[in-house]
Amino acid sequence: MPEQILLQGKILGTEEFLLAGSTEGRATRSAGEDVLAGRFQWITLICEVLPRALLAELGLARILLGSSGGGQFLVVLPGEVRETAETFLRQAAQQIAELSGLRASLLWAVTDNLGDWAVIRKRLNDELERKRFTPLAGSNGNAFQPFAAASNSDADAYFARELGAKIREASRVGWSPDNAGKVTAGEGKFSWNLSSNLSPDSIMLARHAAPSDDGKSAAPVQSLARRAQGRSIWGVLRGDVDNFGLRLRRVHSIEEHVPLSVLYKQFFAGELEVLCSLPEFWRKVTILYAGGDDFAVYGSWDALIALAREVQRLFHRFTEENLKEYPGAEGKTISMAIALAPEIFYPLASVYEEAGRNLDLAKAADKDCIYILGRILEWRHLNDAADLKDTVTRLVHDFRMSKQFLYQLRSFYRHEAHAGTPGLPAEEVQRTWRFQRRFNRVLSGTRDREFQKLRSHLVNELVGRKTAEVKLRPAGLVALEWARLITEG
Asked: Would strands 294-300 and 234-241 be described as parallel, antiparallel, or unpaired?
């Protein structure tokens, strides 16, 4: 029997579980938000609590916890407790499956703590993959017996009442062996402090929620929509570190793996909580979760854009400071996506799912970018769009340009999209002088110097300063849509 073993656990099927029941109607929208918030908190906390509870049940020191959170955990154990640890995890896995309606599953792998870290990691991953793709291996044929469909009503009541708002206000979370797959707000056989800061005796959890109008609960999505500047819309922002898994695979030892994992988790939990407490965000955004390499928040559409820019700026500074000794760009950039609800009472889970699809599109197209208002932009181009948006809104507000002005500007992009199509003259948008002449017609009516300065800046930013032929910039369309949302209040 080896002196030490490594145990890695992972929860699979979380996305399917979180999105289950995403078609709730208006009558149940508030309950649906509470259930979804509770599900996110459960998924976040169960991977923090289980390894700590395992060590506490075995009477082992907290220092043996390697990493936790983000849907997985890693612990170091004495070899003689292997069977006891696996029995513990089987009990937890059974209740996790029941609570999730058989959508989420807890898998784990155990291997000797011997050899090179790359070899150890491969053994753990191979074992997890084997269990993942052979789910009926240990069922002894029982999986083919008739069974009654599990009811989610009790589970949803647990997520909404025992987690949800209770966890946002709680100072501690507890765990008890008779409910091995549950986390409760308050005390249990074992309990731990909740904190947004890194502490050996605490669990890091980002849990800011925008307060309701009476300050007694979390604000529903319709309140967040009304707090937006301009048009009343809410949405979801999701972010994910680019090639984070590849960055972890390139470390050479567990002593390097664990601090790196903790470093990222600390960034997302700590920085999100601090950002969301700032005056421009605290009444407009609510955190859904902050994982080991990703996060999700929902709130007023304008606050989501501003928050995305701040998170990217801080993440860039974070990687420059903490990963400067690591070669390559893996794990040093972040991509995000925003999805806006088509109407105020739209289900939160559906918008979260749409934001996930948008994030997949952004990461497939490029790295270090954002999907926003129907376009994928590099971060530096989003800054250009913000500057251009300010110019357009000044023209609308200060010089009383009509709303039709914005639609005329957007029509240039429609013409460009169809340039070269039979029946549409390609030269309509191909020559700069014709484009400029159309702008002159749109922005006519005054010879004010400031107006002309803004007009020239707008033209240059849309079509470029040094180009013989017009090529409209994608950031320009984002800026125009951004300005339209602001001016449609």
From this structure: antiparallel
